Amino acid sequence: MKRESKSFTDALYAILTAAQRFEGPKYMLSGLSGLAFKFSVHRRLLPMSVTAYGQWGNEHAPAIDNLGIHTAYDGGRTRHSSFEVYQQDTIAWIKQSIDAGVGALYWIPEFGVIHGYDDADKVFYLQDGWSGESQVVLYDNFGINFTSFWYCQVFGNQVEVPLKDAVLESLRLALYDWETPYKTWPDKEIASGRLAYSYLIQALKLGDFDSSGAAYILDSYVYARREIRDYLQEVHQLIPGLDEVHHIYSELADLMTEELAVSLPSFNGTGQLAEHRQASLCAALAKAEALEERAMERVRIVSERYPDRKRSIVPRWGAHSAR
């Protein structure tokens, strides 16, 4: 595992490529899963913004489904009285997955890969992506971390999804993310999609924000926009009209890459953004928001040309049915 993209994407890529469930560059996985399009920002630009893009089960299941891969996941709060029961059950199915040659995705935090275990020492072997060295997690400490929640996911067999269908669905996932302002109801401290731009710009203007968080959010945001650009470069010929979306994201990625080259060192150094750089960065972000709005308008037009069975046919157990 190597940290480059969102930590979930990095972990997922390491697991799927090792298990021969995915071929191609990481930006293709990030694009096809829709993960590249996820953008969330805390009002004070806390570092947790980057992984706080919604309820993980709801966010990750459609992403993996679009790859045609069977997946199972679990998670919850470590304070729950049933935690130890779930902990022991999860330990068992992680070991089963590793025995089958497939690693497990694990919240450290952030996300990492469990790739081995030793029953004699009762430990898992874990990679976090920052170092080539493996860490160990005691079975007894599984799921326990400085956050209040735990999460783990494994992956099974795969069916083939036609690339055009997967690309179209990834765009629809992107459009949903763009148009959904809050993914962590009832909490409104974290905004998603287009509203995330407003939170980011407002925090920068007020000056009341976490400087390391700001640097992390901006770096992750720009990396993701470059992933989108590269992804669309690969697939735009599959769907008429997608070339224009690609051009817009290319302009956006170039704009923000250039802006961050001069703005980001301020956060990483003094932690204070010079007044002239603040104005320049906010102006660039406002322009980027307008570009992304244009791109999503084109995505909506492209999407409407094709039937959408996932959203137009209500399944027996619909999204709003009691379960």
Structure explained in plain terms:
The chain is of the alpha+beta class. It has two domains: 122 residues, Cathepsin B, Chain A, CATH 3.90.70; 161 residues, no CATH class. 50% of the residues lie in helices and 14% in strands. It contains ten helices and eight strands. The strands form two sheets. It has a six-stranded antiparallel sheet with strand order 2-7-3-4-5-6, sandwiched between helices. Helix 6 packs antiparallel against helix 9, helix 7 packs antiparallel against helix 8 and helix 8 runs antiparallel to helix 9. The longest helix is centred in the C-terminal third of the chain and has 30 residues. The model has no long low-confidence stretch (mean pLDDT 94).
Short description:
The chain is α+β, with helices and mostly antiparallel strands and 323 residues long. Helices cover 50% and strands 14% of the residues.
Layout: helices, strands, pairs:
Layout: H1 7-18, H2 26-32, E1 40-42, H3 56-65, E2 69-77, H4 83-99, E3 104-107, E4 111-118, E5 123-127, E6 135-138, E7 149-158, H5 163-179, E8 190-192, H6 194-206, H7 211-235, H8 242-268, H9 275-304, H10 309-312
Antiparallel strand pairs: 1-8, 2-7, 3-4, 3-7, 4-5, 5-6
Q: Into how many domains do the coordinates divide?
A: 2
Order of helices and strands: HHEHEHEEEEEHEHHHHH
Question: Unreliable runs, pLDDT <50, ≥5 residues?
Answer: none
Number of continuous helical runs: 10
From the spread of the alpha carbons, the general shape counts as: globular
Q: How much of the residues is beta strand, in percent?
A: 5-15%
Relative helix content: 40-55%
Rg value: 20 Å
Q: Give the helix/strand class.
A: alpha+beta
How many strands?
8
- How many strands, what sense, and barrel or not for the largest sheet? 6 strands, antiparallel
N→C terminal distance: 36 Å
